[in-house]
Amino acid sequence: MRYMSTRKVRIEIIPMIDIMLFLLVFFAMLTLRMIPSSGHVTKLPTSSTAALIPHPKLLVEISPDGSLLVENHTLTLPQLTELLRQRGSSQTAVTIAGNETSSLQQVMGVIDAVRNGGATEIGLAARNTAQ
User: Among 4, 66, 96, 121, whose Cα sits 20 to 30 Å from the Cα of 40?
Assistant: First the structure.
């Protein structure tokens, strides 16, 4: 009657551990902002002297049509200035990401709006030509 004996039930925890470790790594990367915050800009201008800068607190993207994208919202220059004033932006690091078709006048307009908002740390995004 050996074949009639009941077997002890076991819970397999190895797959559960794998899933928990995957979730831990995913949330750690998310909180460290290793995952890019936005994928709108695809053709950044190039520079042979481009250097890595810390992740910005605010990313302003200039689209090919000239509109501004900030945190997935389309803003005008006065709205950008007001947003920075509301944040108390003296310590806000702002990075401006244009594209190959952005004019210098558009970039200067964004820089003026950011400075009028009170931010003092301004960076320009570019791709390194070596990449």
Answer: 121
